[in-house]
Amino acid sequence: MCPGPSEVNPEVFLAMAKPLVSHVDPTFFALLDQLQGQLKTIFQTENICMLLSGTGTSGMEASLINFLEPDDRVLVGVIGHFGDRIRMIAERIGCNVKVVSAPEGKALDPDDVEIAIKGFSPKLFACVHAETSTGVLQPLEDIMNICKKYEVLTLVDTVASLGGVNVPVDSLGIDIVYSGSQKCLGCPPGVAPISFSPRAERILESLTPRNYYLDLRLIRKYWLERVYHHTPPVSLFYACNKGFDLIIEEGLINRFERHRKIGLALQKGLEAMGFKLVADKNVQNPVVTAVYLPAEIEDIKLRKILLEEFGIEIALGIAQLKGKIARFGTMAESARPQNVLYLLSALENILK
Ligand code: PLP
């Protein structure tokens, strides 16, 4: 029950056991077409969709290096560790980066974003939808509308939300969006779904990224025109094909509702036990729950007991929250009532 990797359905593992074909085999090309269709459904978009060979961070890096050049103005919404990683990568590219932030446990205030956009005129605004380090789910609608009003390109990290929380890319008007396979998508780590709008594609045409491996123009040429660029992780693509099928079979709305209910049950249970949630109630993410630990509970000891005595894996605080919090994931196959009940009763046993 750590916030990724989540538990993987055995059918997904079985799919990975299929014999390998080459990345230029006609059946593999057919699989690429299927994956694109599945991703369009899951991202709720008509935009181009692909899988990158790499974890969520490869999606983050590709989303920045392919659309930005040194000196470009970039506004980054930072509400935790992963927003800060976006800032860091944009700075490495040599962009002129400005940060808009929010206090711990809170989401970005759209008014702050608007003021920053007015004063800074960025080319791109980037933020994280589900900030895994705090359990905050950033509401996107108002912020995306502000970006639309000022014609700012938008980039959203959905590594910890896609497949568990609604991410309607087209109706929100997100230009560039990426995710990771190992969280709410319920697949093993190693693949990053990515999608970008025609407006973003026009920018893509106008620059050559310094990074060859994550060059989206070349990767797009492979996905659409079958021109070899690199050998993708064939077995992981089989896994995603199965994992995405399971998501579509369950139905996006049913799946979001399952995650919502399970997250709420866990949060209510933790609060009833006296824990304080890190995220404000109105922006609490259903799939990642972070709680402050009272001074008498040592985080590393808690994790060790849960793992060794109860077989439950959890995550602890990172960056500024190191040593202060515990984090629980209720994602994909891990979002089941029995998991919540078992975790709560284990915690009760440890704390009594
Ligand atoms: N963005 C968010 C919101 C994340 O939670 C993570 C990982 O936990 C990442 C990016 C980085 O993904 P990865 O560890 O798969 O590279």
UniProtKB/TrEMBL annotation:
Signal peptide: none annotated. Keywords: Aminotransferase, Pyridoxal phosphate, Transferase. The keyword Chloroplast does not apply. The modification N6-(pyridoxal phosphate)lysine is found at K183. It holds the Pfam family Aminotran_5. It comes from the Bacteria. Substrate binds at R327. GO terms for biological process: glycine biosynthetic process, by transamination of glyoxylate. One of its GO terms (molecular function) is alanine-glyoxylate transaminase activity. This is Alanine-glyoxylate aminotransferase apoenzyme.
